[in-house]
Amino acid sequence: MDLAQLTYMANQIARNLAAQGEAAAIEATRQHLADYWDPRMKAAIIAADGAGLDPIARAAVERLRPAAE
Amino acid sequence: MGYERQPDFGTPQVHSDTQVALTIDGRAVIVPAGTSVMRAAAECGGSIPSLCATDNVAAFGSCRLCLVEIEGRRGTPASCTTPVEPGMVVHTQSERLARLRKGVMELYISDHPLDCLTCSANNDCELQDAAAEVGLRDVRYGYAGDNHLGLPVDSSNPYFDFDPSKCIVCSRCVRACDEVQGTLALTIDGRGFASTVSAGQSGDDFLSSECVSCGACVQACPTATLQEKAVKQIGKPERAVITTCAYCGVGCTFRAEMRGEQLVRMVPWKDGKANRGHSCVKGRFAWGYANHKDRILSPMIRESIEEPWREVRWDEALAYTASKLNRIKTDHGARALGGITSSRCTNEETYLVQKLVRAGFGSNNVDTCARVCHSPTGYGLSKTYGTSAGTQDFDSVEAADVVLVIGANPTDAHPVFASRMKRHLRQGAKLIVIDPRRIDLVRSPHVEAAHHLALRPGTNVAVLTAMAHVVVSEGLADEAFIAQRCEADDYRHWADFVAQQRHSPEALEPVTGVPAAELRAAARLYATGGNAAIYYGLGVTEHSQGSSTVMAIANLAMATGNIGRAGVGVNPLRGQNNVQGSCDMGSFPHELPGYRHIAGAAVREQFEADWQVTLDPEPGLRIPNMLDAALDGSFRALYIQGEDILQSDPNTHHVAAGLKAMELVIVHDLFLNETADYAHVFLPGSTFLEKDGTFTNAERRVQLVRKVMEPANGMADWEVTQALANAIGLDWRYTHPSEIMDEIARLTPTFAGVSFARLEAEGSLQWPVTEAAPDGTPIMHVDNFVRGKGRFMVTDYVPTDEKTGPRYPLLLTTGRILSQYNVGAQTRRTDNVVWHEEDLLEIHPADAENRGIKSGDWVRLASRTGETTLRAEVTDRVAPGVVYTTFHHPATQANVVTTDYSDWATNCPEYKVTAVQVLPSNGPSEWQESYASWSARSRRIATEPAE
After folding, report:
1. What average pLDDT does this structure show over B90-115?
2. pLDDT digits (tens, 9 = 90+) for B134-157
3. How far, in whole angstroms, is CA B290 from its chain's centroid?
4. Where in chain B is the domain with CATH 3.40.50.740?
5. Closest CA to B453 of B412, B514, B544, B396
6. What 3-state DSSP class applies to B114?
7. Mean pLDDT over residues B780-809, rounded?
8. Domain B300-373+623-753's class?
9. In whole angstroms, what separates CA A40 from the centre of its chain?
10. Which fold has domain B19-93?
11. How far is A57 from chain B (nearest CA, A)?
12. Is B338 left (phi over 0), alpha (psi -120 to 50) or beta?
């Protein structure tokens, strides 16, 4: 999968959830990725180094890791 | 069954809590107060002759044929304009009445051509019937006097003729245009004997007038004055079958009037609860595509898209396809396969495609065209209310005091509902329009919006948040409703958020372009004007914040208590005929039928037990993800039923690249569409006239689609999917779509009480149809939200990343027009092209002048993703800085220009905001010419060498 595209999507999700407050936004972003992303998309963003991810998106991807692994 | 017109009760049905008892011809009758004597007589089986009365327009009292005698009253009043009264004693037949009626008929017939035997309405003519009823045997006046028999026929409309020589000037056509359609295109020109029906201004014919060709006038005409050309060509129908339209989400029901296996005409069914006897130009007239010469009737295969197609038998096509699917699955895994369900197909067909993908292919890679239209509705309404559906039935609009239309153009995209809405607006309801364009609703005959918020494209969330700011900061919120029905903490958090000064109309005016005072006034009207209903369309969803906008709408309705009763609510106007149904049937990659997430073990196990398979618990790929995955080699085979993603999806170059990268693309459709240029298997589809099933419209109304002719390709679409499923090794044994619906009902709680037998009995059912609501649910969230308490969701305005700049200084927004439908595959193959033979680019006069562009000029429309050329239409309907076009014609391919920016939550494309430049051009672009050449080459069909 195109990592740049996945990174953009994750950041876009996080930006739109940011108004919930940081902690809630991180969890909501994680849940969104878990609920709507195909396994290969999750795997690709988890496998990447997080470069380009905004802080909320990065934290959400971090939390996604144990569930996916 | 022989052919009969649908019964006509003469005047409209009246609803009243008071019942009136009277006697008509010795029979005791009880009817609602306000009912006409004519209707009361008809309801008890009587018949009063009439010509100017019909039950879909108000009584007029002009023909003087429906006279009756009422004991204790002088004279012979017209029964159509006389309301019933308690104890009234009515006589509809007497010598005096017979004499009067015969005299009236003599006058009519003295100026009417006596060509009944060669008239297209022979034996289906109310004038003929009335003459028979009154026993007309001669005409004392003769036929030599002044008359209208020499007036020329107006044949300008492609679907019907106007022959004024047969006109009796009953005004039914004029009244139908006024009251039913609301266009007011017709009038009676002249006075007295010189009176004639006239379309538009002097010098206009029907085609050049403002007539929108809805056909209400044709339906209302009691003679052959306004008559379908098809009736003239084919003859009188001999049977009628009730079925559901395959255009748009209104879900009009029709009588398909047949002669043998030939469709003669579609006549709106008056008992249809979605359309109440009305239709538009598409549903009534644009069905000629069903027999168009372009239709493909044999399966075709090819190894490579560079090769011509080869026609094969069904068994060869299915074996070839199954072999490829099975090999790809073996080599690359189940997740390399997927499918796209069709929102034009039935619930049963859609259900089978998602079942094929899940149970047969073994993945959840199933998606539907709702991805590119109303997927944000699913997300937004689920989060706030708990389910993905509009809250009201269409009747609800008649109880609204304020109608807010945002991002929708109902008169073009949902015309039959728009007519009902306009009728209610003419009666005094207030209208707020939020749209960058001055859509027709903003100002049309006897309808004018109280407020038109002409916002900048892409700023919906900012406008709605500013409206919420007004509601909260000015104390207009319905605190009692909120306290009783909504999550308290979420409301407080939301209210604090929207109350911030940065969300005030004044602070956001520079962003939205909407004057703060106008926005405040609109918000106050919505919050305090009584029952307020929101109707929205793709101008809400097709944005990078589509889901946020849906949630902002839901918030606004909750904050003002406009949920849970007639006249209020949140109403997504669905684009295609079965978008609601395709979503209900589990077409999204993350959820099973009934909007239940695939990760839920209990639900999954229920399906696994029924289908005898193990299901993948992980969500699958959405359409854009499928295309991305195809490019990296992890997605290789796609079955597409009834969708043309190359033309309808954004960034055409990207879609083409994704399709080209796949090993196997199976297109199941009526025509070789644009997507089929990249396909390896073509499975011919069937039209809605050729199959049984159900569609679900925008008000969650499940209605039967009935087969009126055999499938020209040999198999209905559900049979093709079943044959493909069995070819890959499944064992499906459905013998009729009703069995598929039984399975849906068994596995989907909201459909638990739906069956073909119940639909036959009830006409339609609105889900949820459950034990608690056995007759369906016209209005949702009445006492509680589906999720329990309503949840306010904070929706922060996040500007789109699609920015204008020096290279691309204008904003393009796209949409549709009345005469065409979606990618135009059907409507382009009908005479509807007379109204729209090409896509045009609307551009404001100031922007046009700056570029030296005049109406009709070729212009180059370019964005960062691509460019195309089309002709310009200079109009102030669009604001300066905004241009607009449609996407109905593949020669234009507007989606070459749109980008792959999409809604943050659902990936619904941002069709409504693309930064573009527009410059004069001298003809088609290089891309258009090369695509046309490629497309022609890809559609070659090999001729088998003679054996």
Report:
1. 95
2. 999 999 998 888 999 999 999 999
3. 18
4. 300-373+623-753
5. B514
6. coil
7. 96
8. alpha beta
9. 13
10. Ubiquitin-like (UB roll) (3.10.20)
11. 13
12. beta
- The angle subtended at Cα B196 by Cα B59 and Cα B210, nearest 5°, is 85
Pick the closest to residue B385 from B785, B829, B653, B834 (CA basis): B785
Structure tokens belonging to residue B175: 């009244």
Query: Does B191 have pLDDT greater than 80?
Result: yes
Token pair recorded at residue B586: 């589990």
Q: Is B619 on the interface with A (CB under 8 A)?
A: yes
Q: Which one, of B917, B911, B802, B811, lies nearest residue B867 by Cα?
A: B917
ipTM above 0.90, yes or no: yes
Q: State the smallest CA–CA distance between residue A16 and chain B in angstroms.
A: 7
Q: Enumerate the CATH 3.10.20.740 domain ranges in chain B, comma separated.
A: 19-93
CA separation for the pair B49, B169 (Å, rounded): 17
Q: What mean pLDDT, rounded, does chain A reach?
A: 93
Q: What is the pLDDT of residues B73-91, one digit of tens each?
A: 999 999 999 999 999 999 9
User: At B570, phi and psi to the nearest 5?
Assistant: -125, 120
Q: Which residues from B are below 8 Å from A13, CB to CB?
A: 904-905
pLDDT at B946 (0 to 100): 42
Segments of chain B assigned to CATH 2.40.40.20: 810-937
Q: Which two tokens stand for residue B161?
A: 């003729």
Closest CA of chain A from B904, distance in Å = 5
CA distance B901 to chain A (A): 9
Neighbours of B932 (CB within 10 A): 13
A45 CB near a chain B CB, below 8 Å? Answer: no
Residues from chain A contacting residue B620 (CB–CB below 8 Å):
38
pLDDT score for B303: 96
Residue B331 to chain A, least CA–CA distance (Å): 17
**Which of A19, A34, A40 is facing B796, going by the closest CB pair?**
A19
Residue partners of B420: CB distance under 8 A and separation at least 6: B276, B278, B394, B397, B398
Q: Which amino acid would we find at residue B559?
A: A
Domain with CATH 3.40.228.10 in chain B: 375-572
Residue B410 has pLDDT above 90, yes or no: yes
CA angle B409, B623, B820 (to 5 degrees): 30
- Closest partner residue to A5 among B497, B628, B906, by Cβ? B628
CB-CB contact of B298 with B685 (8 Å): no
* Mutation target vs B (from A38, A41, A45, A46; most B CBs, 10 A cutoff): A38
- Per-residue tokens: B158: 């492609």
Tokens of B226: 């306004």
Helices and strands (H and E) in chain A: how many: 4, 0
Distance of CA B212 to the CA centre of its chain: 16
On whether the B375-572 domain is CATH 3.40.50.2300, my answer is no
Identify from A36, A37, A41, A64 which residue to disrupt to test chain B contact, counting B C-beta atoms within 10 A and taking the largest count. A36
B528 sits in which H/E element = helix B516-528
Res. B815 pLDDT band, cuts 50 70 90:
confident
Q: What is the pLDDT of residues B849-905, one digit of tens each?
A: 999 999 999 999 999 999 999 999 999 999 999 999 998 888 888 888 999 899 999
CA distance B940 to B934: 10
The answer to whether residues B393 and B779 touch, using CB atoms and an 8 Å cutoff, is: yes
Say yes or no to pLDDT of B23 above 70.
yes
**DSSP label of B228:** E
Strands (E), B59-202: 69-70, 89-91, 160-162, 186-189, 196-199
Q: Which residues in chain B have Cβ-Cβ distances shorter than 8 Å to A40?
A: 335, 629, 634
The first and second tokens of residue B824, run together, are: 């135009």
The answer to whether domain B810-937 has CATH 3.40.640.10 is: no
A3: nearest CA partner in chain B: B628
